[in-house]
């Protein structure tokens, strides 16, 4: 079975999303999701943006916006929610006068999902969506999994049935920058054990060869299930710049929720 499915913006379906939830498909690839003019405008601005900062837990990665995964205490929790809407507006502005691909993704999923899709709220506070991430030359995004539960408050555990990831590629190096996917879903305990003292992720040497390797192009959208191990090979030339989105699945008849 082909574990990476190619489709188009118009053909993306409810069943495609469910196939990722069930891990029948490892990734769904939509080539040319972004419109050319909009991408060219944004790429110029994003490659040299004054608001680029460093990801709290792994300083080798640049980012615009404050990720949910950066929450480690009450102050960072407040920061995430206070900056959520201003950061959404800031990234929307980068694409102006065109619609931002993050907004288009939100609308597309709201339209295709029977119960719709909206920003995640935690304790009545909205979450940020659409983080811009920079992986500069020779930086390795090690094999890892993503789990919202690592950063949710204690009384909010257990409300997701599945987590999906949706990346929009703004700049992709000529060499390197491939997405690697393994068909391995470690339990949280096993993952923490494999991680040991590392800030995040697992050594590649501890894993077999990946089940799939995909090289996206600038403008593409890739959906994946980040509860299975995945990684991004280092770029050998320009920075790899993406817009990252997570989707929460709470059942087929419930809305999808968004955060970054
Ligand atoms: O940038 C990518 O291709 C994948 C990034 C990633 O780790 C994720 O989507 O969870
Ligand atoms: Fe990830």
From TrEMBL:
It comes from the Bacteria. InterPro entries: Oxoglu/Fe-dep_dioxygenase_dom, WelO5-like. Keywords: Iron, Metal-binding, Oxidoreductase. The keyword Phosphoprotein does not apply. Residues 125-252 form the Fe2OG dioxygenase domain. Belongs to the iron/ascorbate-dependent oxidoreductase family. This is Fe2OG dioxygenase domain-containing protein.
């Amino acid at each position: 079975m082909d574990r990476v499915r190619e489709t188009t913006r118009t053909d993306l379906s409810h069943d495609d999303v469910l196939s990722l939830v069930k891990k029948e498909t490892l990734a769904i690839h939509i080539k040319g999701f972004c419109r050319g003019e909009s991408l060219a405008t944004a790429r110029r601005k994003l490659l040299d943006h004054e608001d680029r900062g460093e990801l709290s837990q792994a300083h080798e990665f640049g980012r615009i916006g404050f990720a949910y995964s950066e929450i480690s205490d009450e102050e960072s929790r407040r920061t995430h929610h206070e900056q959520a809407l201003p950061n959404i507006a800031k990234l929307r502005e980068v694409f102006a006068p065109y619609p931002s691909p993050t907004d288009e993704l939100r609308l597309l999923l709201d339209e295709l999902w029977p119960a719709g899709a909206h920003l995640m709220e935690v304790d009545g506070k909205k979450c940020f969506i659409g983080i811009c991430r920079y992986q500069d030359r020779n930086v390795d995004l090690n094999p890892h999994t993503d789990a919202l539960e690592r950063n949710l408050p204690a009384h909010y555990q257990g409300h997701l049935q599945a987590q999906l990831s949706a990346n929009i590629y703004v700049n992709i190096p000529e060499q390197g920058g491939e997405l690697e996917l393994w068909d391995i879903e470690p339990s949280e305990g096993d993952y923490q054990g494999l991680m040991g003292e590392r800030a995040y992720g697992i050594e590649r040497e501890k894993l077999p060869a990946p089940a799939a390797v995909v090289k996206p192009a600038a403008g593409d959208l890739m959906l994946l299930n980040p509860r299975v191990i995945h990684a991004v090979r280092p770029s050998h030339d320009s920075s790899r710049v993406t817009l990252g989105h997570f989707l929460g699945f709470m059942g087929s008849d419930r809305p999808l929720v968004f955060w970054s």
